[in-house]
Amino acid sequence: MARLMIFDELMRGVDLPGHAIIIGRSKRVDLPITDRILSRKHCSIIPMDSGFSIVDLKSQNGTFVNGERIDKADLEYDDVIEIGETVMVILDTDSWNRGEGLTRLRNPVKAQELIQKINGSSVPVSGLESRVPGEADGGGAGAGQSLVARLLEDLVLRELAGALLKESPRYRDAVQAVAQQLLSDGWVGRNLEETRARARELLAAVEDGEISAPDDGDGSSGGESSEEE
C-alpha cells in the first residue's frame, strides 16, 4: 500500500486510500495539515492505474514536486512534495530509496530530517479513516463486535445530527442545500464512501459561501463560520 509521510508540526505517515483525497489547512478536508500558509484546500492526490497523480487546487503558494512547481504531475515513489512549510514523501516501502534530488528542494533540511526518520522507522503511521474496534480480528466474535460497533456508531451520529438540526436552522439549511446539489448532480446510487466525500466538499463550499443555503424566511440562514481560521 502506498504511504504518504508528512512533516508539518509533527512527523507522521498515512496509508493512502483507493480514492482521491484533498489536502489543506481546512479541518474539513481529507488530510488536514497544520501549516499557516497553506490554502484551505491546497492540493489533491489521486490514485491512477499506474500509481498516483497530484493536482494543485489553485493554491496561493503553490505545490512543488522534487523542487519544481506543478499544476498537475504524475507521482513516482520516493518523490518529495512540498506545500507551504510542509514536506511530504510518497513511499511504497518502509524506506526512502532515492539517493539524489534533495539539493533542488525549497526546504532540503526539513526533507532530510524526515527521510532520516523514515529510514530509521521512527515515524508513526496510521490510516486516514479510523478503524472500528474489532474490525481487524478477521471473523468470528470479533467480526460480530465490529458490525455492532458500526451500527451503534451510526445510530449515535444520527441522533447527534437530528439534535444539531433542531438546535440550529443554519445547519439544516446547509444540509438541504447540499442534498439538493447532490440530487441535481445525479449522485443517487453512488457508493456511500464516494457520496460522503462529495458531501464533505459541498458542505465546505456552503461554509465558504460558494453555494447558497436556501433561505426559509426566518432570517436564520448564514451566520459566522464555525471553523477557526
Can you describe this structure?
- It is built from four helices and twelve strands.
- It is α+β, with helices and mostly antiparallel strands.
- It has a seven-stranded mixed beta sheet, covered by helices on one side.
- The longest helix is centred in the last third of the chain and has 28 residues, at 140-167.
Low confidence ranges: 130-145, 216-229
> What is the first-to-last residue Cα distance?
33 Å
Rg result? 20 Å
Provide mean pLDDT, rounded. 79
* Helix/strand order, N-terminal first: EEEEEEEEEEEHEHHH
Structure, briefly:
This protein is an alpha+beta fold and 229 residues long. The chain has helices at 108-119, 140-167, 169-184, 192-207; strands at 3-7, 11-15, 21-24, 31-32, 43-48, 51-56, 63-65, 68-70, 72-75, 80-83, 86-91, 125-127.
SSE topology sketch:
Layout: E1 3-7, E2 11-15, E3 21-24, E4 31-32, E5 43-48, E6 51-56, E7 63-65, E8 68-70, E9 72-75, E10 80-83, E11 86-91, H1 108-119, E12 125-127, H2 140-167, H3 169-184, H4 192-207
Parallel strand pairs: 2-12, 3-4
Antiparallel strand pairs: 1-2, 1-11, 3-5, 5-6, 6-9, 7-8, 7-10, 10-11
Helix pairs in contact: 2-3, 3-4
Observed structural traits:
seven-stranded mixed sheet; 12 strands; alpha+beta; 229 residues
